[in-house]
Automatic annotation (TrEMBL):
Transmembrane segments: none annotated. Residues 2-66 form the Putative restriction endonuclease domain. It comes from the Bacteria. It comes from Leadbettera azotonutricia (strain ATCC BAA-888 / DSM 13862 / ZAS-9) (Treponema azotonutricium). This is Putative restriction endonuclease domain-containing protein. Gene3D superfamilies: tt1808, chain A.
Length: 79
């Protein structure tokens, strides 16, 4: 059975693109990386971000998500 990461990166991505989902994020908490796919016309453009600063939400211009803070909170709750 394929891993969740490969399902997210291939199967879901294709389904979301066909459904015209405007923005799709894949978060890799182990490597502290976010992949943001933004629909432009008929295809996705890809942007990659690290958790060191807030990530802008492409479809909400005045919004950004601070994954570093969220990740730090999650790490603290595991202890």
């Amino acid at each position: 059975m394929p891993s969740t990461a490969s399902i997210d990166a291939v199967y879901k991505l294709n389904k979301y693109q066909k459904a015209k989902v405007r923005e799709y994020w894949i978060i890799d908490p182990d490597n502290k990386i976010l992949l943001r796919y933004t629909l432009e016309k008929e295809t996705y453009s890809l942007s990659q971000y690290e958790f060191d600063k807030p990530v802008p939400v492409a479809i909400l211009p005045d919004c950004a998500i601070d994954l570093g803070a969220a990740y730090a909170d999650q790490e603290m709750s595991r202890r």
